[in-house]
Amino acid sequence: MVLNLQKIINAPGERMAFQFELDLSGVDFGGMYPIQEPVVVTGQARNTAGMLTLEMEMSTVLKSVCDRCMKPFDNPRRVSYQCLLDDAPEEENDEIVPLVNHTLDAGELAKTIFILEMDTKTLCSEDCKGLCPGCGVDLNQGSCTCKKEADPRLAVLAKLLEKDS
């Protein structure tokens, strides 16, 4: 969605609200496509004392798989973003987004920000115990029956204990 900001550039106190949906269902994250629902983008561009500011919020529900227990779950995701806008920035700055002929491609900016804010690790819950590395039992459902291996650095002590019993 391209926003034409000509009307508010020279009008302090004015604002332009917007809302649109992004289809990011084709975006691949490690062989998975978690963004199956549209990303709803809402925001506004505002002229505050001659400075243009942009505020955006993007939200959707991701189809994720827990990195510990491998269970699929719905993962609500909300990303907020704020920046300054400038028609002719004098130097490159990460906090200032340049305009092209008084316009901003808000769709492309929202897509970039949303993708950059994706989690590298997803968990179904903060206290997820994951899977047993020995037998693969889901430790959230109960404990496993694996014999815990001793630390190899303590193997000599383990042999002494076996001799005593």
Write the layout of secondary structure elements.
Layout: E1 2-4, H1 6-9, E2 15-22, E3 39-48, E4 51-65, E5 72-86, E6 96-98, E7 103-105, H2 106-116, H3 155-164
Parallel strand pairs: 5-6
Antiparallel strand pairs: 1-7, 2-3, 3-4, 4-5
In short:
By secondary structure, the protein is of the alpha+beta class. The chain contains 3 helices and 7 strands.
Record keyword descriptors for this entry.
single chain, two-stranded antiparallel sheet, 3 helices, elongated
What does this structure look like?
- With 165 residues, this protein is of the alpha+beta class.
- It has helices at residues 6-9, 106-116, 155-164, and strands at residues 2-4, 15-22, 39-48, 51-65, 72-86, 96-98, 103-105.
- The strands form 2 sheets. A 5-stranded mixed beta sheet has the order 2-3-4-5-6, with helices on one face.
- It is elongated and about 90 Å long.
- The model has no long low-confidence stretch (mean pLDDT 89).
Helix content: 10-25%
Tell me the series of helices and strands, N- to C-terminal. Answer: EHEEEEEEHH
Q: What profile does the largest beta sheet have?
A: 5 strands, mixed
Whole-number mean pLDDT: 89
Strands side by side in the biggest sheet: 2-3-4-5-6
Rg is 25 Å
Q: Per the principal axes of the C-alpha atoms, what is the gross shape?
A: elongated
The helix-and-strand class reads alpha+beta
What is the subunit arrangement here? single chain
How many helical elements?
3
Separation of the first and last Cα atoms? 75 Å
Find the count of extended strands (DSSP E, 2+ residues).
7
Runs in which pLDDT lies below 50 for 5 or more consecutive residues are: none
Estimate the strand proportion: 25-35%
